[in-house]
Structures are given as C-alpha cells and as structure tokens.
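Sequence in, structure out. Go.
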Amino acid sequence: MPNRDFLKSEPGPRLAFLEEPHPLTIAETLVAFANTEGGTIVFGLREDGETAPKKIDAKALEDALKKADGDCNPPVGVANWEEVETERGTVYTLRVPRSIELHALIDGRVLIRSGVKNRPLGGQEILKLASAKNTGDFESEVVPGATAEDFSNKMITEYLSKRAERTKRPYNGRIADLLKEIGAVNEEGKATVSGILLFSEYPQHWLPQSSVVFAKFVGKTPRGENGLAGYVRREELTGPLPRLVENAWNLIWSEMAVSAVVKGLEREETYEYPQFAVREAIVNAICHRDYRLKGRRIEIRMYSDRLEVISPGGLPGFITIENIVEEHFSRNPRVVNGLFQWGYIEELGLGIDRMMEVMQQAGHKPPYFDARPYSFAVTLFNEREKQKAPEWARNTNHRQARALQYIRDHGSITNREYRTLCQGVSAETLRLDLADMVEQGILLKVGSKKGTYYILK
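Output:
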C-alpha cells in the first residue's frame, strides 16, 4: 500500500508538491532530491496541499517523467511512480532515492534541495559535493567477517517497536526484507556498516573507531597541575549507536551541575546546559561522523565552563559553517534514518536550528561550531558565573523557597501568611521551616508572639 504520510505534511527538504507535470520542474526536483537526501514528489497537489483543479492524466505524467529523466545527467530513474487514491481525489507519487552519483541538468546546473526550494550550487560547492560522492557510500559497504547473524534480536525488536510508534503502523512483513530495505544488509544479505552500527551488540569488534570517549576536566584546560592530566573522570562507551546516545547522555547528565532558583512562588531547578542542546550535539556527532577514519573516536570533553563534542571528519558535502542552519546533507543517511525511527531525532533537518534556539532561551551564548578538514566540534557554554542562583535560594526546600520569594515581593512574612501560602501543611512543620532558615542565617526573626514576622537577614 502506498505511503500516505504526505497528506498530513507540508513541502520541505524531503517532500515536493507539483500541481502539473512540467518536465523541466520535474527534472529540477529529481536532481535536487538525488543530490541531497532523497525525497518524494507528489503530483496533483498545490503547494498548500489542496488537490489541483485540473486532474493529471496518467499517460501525460508518464511521458513527462521520461522526458524529465532524460534531461538529468546521469538519469535518476522514474519507473517506480504510483497512483494514490485520497479523499480529495487521485494523486501520483514518485519516491526519489538519494544517489551516490552527482546529478546535473542538461544545461549544466547542479541542484540541491534547500527547504522547499531547489537551489543551484556554485563552483566550489559542486566540487565539495562531488568529492563527497566520490568517497563512496561507506555505511553501505559490507563489513568483512560480519553477517546478519551478528545482529541482536533485542535491538531489532526495539527498532521495530520504536518505528511503529513513529509511523503509527506496525511492520508486518519479513524481517529480512526490512533489513534489506533500510540498508542493514545488501542485496546478498551481507551485513553492512550501518547494519552493524545499529543492530550489533558490540559493533566495536569490527569498527573500533565507533566508540565514544568521555572526559571531565577540573578546570578550563586539559592540563592539570604539574603537567598531569586534568581530568577527574574518563570513560569509554561502547555498544550499538542507540546505546551510545543513551549512555553518553546519562553520563553527561550525571556530571551536570544543577542549581535552584525561585520564580514566582515555585522553586525551579536549572541545569548547566539545556537538555535538548546536549542530546542534539551527541546525536549529531554519532550520526554524521566519518566512520572511515579508523584511528579516531568521538570525544566528549566536559570543562568547568563548557561542553565540547568533537566528531571525526569534516562537514559533509556542500555544508559549511555559514549554511549549516539552512542546508542539510548527511554523510550517513541510513544511520540518520535509523536513529530518527528510534526517536532520537525529533524532526529531520531541524536539530541545529532548535539547538541554537534553546541555548538562547536559557540565556546562554549560542553554540560555537569549529569545522576543520578532519573534525567538527560543537561547544556549548554554561556561563555559570553569570547565572549563579542567589545565595538565599540554596539549601532550602520548596516551601521555604516560596516563603523567600514572598518576602522578596512583600518585605516580610508572618506565620499566618506562610500557612496561607502552604495550605495543607501542619503549622508545626511550617514553624520548623522558618526556625531552620533563622538558624541558617537566611532570615531574621522580628518581634514576639502574635506580632512575630520574618525578614531577609
């Protein structure tokens, strides 16, 4: 049954709506999708998703597709188009796979998909994309000595479950067919690099470079005193890629500083780094690193003022620091799709944008990106010096934090006012709360008996 997900989607990096089958427009979209991440063309829908007023003739579409493919150099392939019946009428879909070749139009233009548009590349960008294509599709290569028998049934079952949650449809076919479809095995059923990375319990047996090294340093530099290593914790993480994402996140989480601030009448915990930004930095490194580089592993370095995630391999294809937010090109599209189905990627192509957004919302400097020929690093700054919680917000429980905020707003608090703030709590517990803060030197008790009230000391 044809996939109808496009009915609830909008045009974007992997989806195009064409109202009429113009050969030139089709050719431009074929080339753009094939050169970038692949995608689906839907014929018979307007850009707003509404059905085109003029019904498309199937024979005319087939002729236009053949003409369009002939205008691509080399041809992309258009034989797998399908007719789809919807509530709004008949449309036609064509799935365009990502290609390992560089495609151009007969007029010489090389296009990539950028958002909802097909963008022509400049000379240097074409050279970079051609270089990326020429290095081969490493994740689809067969792993010598590995077979599908080396896949973990547990990991496959987990993938199927997560995929069903994502697509809202359980997979009812043969597992062997699915593994071939997602590129985990090749046509002969031999295990590929992406298959081993995603589904083997210990991919590092074949690909030792696929582990992750974590180090936490005392200060702002790798060096400690007297020339010794400055780290206080060092861990090497192994396992399939989904486990690496989880374990790297848990490790950083366990080492992350947490402070408490009071907003309104609520005590709120503030983490050293926004959770989404950290997870995105980890997932990006694991998805996009160059697994051909055998002597290097992903490094996560936690300093007192920043978190660095360093990924082996430069930026892929035509991606640069300048266009990293707008443009998208994956070195390992099968790995990316696998972790997307697993749920570690919320929406394809939007991670960097959101990472920058959440850092800004949390009051941090934007992430710093460092692109070198053989590595790419993301740095998140914590800026704890500028965001220290006030001293009076520490070492207090949530009731006491509400009392302190009340005093800041009103100047003082009485036992009666405190009971009104914390209804349902015994008077004795609240009395002890206030006495504790007096003992800590946070509050000063003024007056006696019914005239007692408390102020900040």
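Check: The mean pLDDT is 87. DSSP finds 13 helices and 20 strands in the chain.
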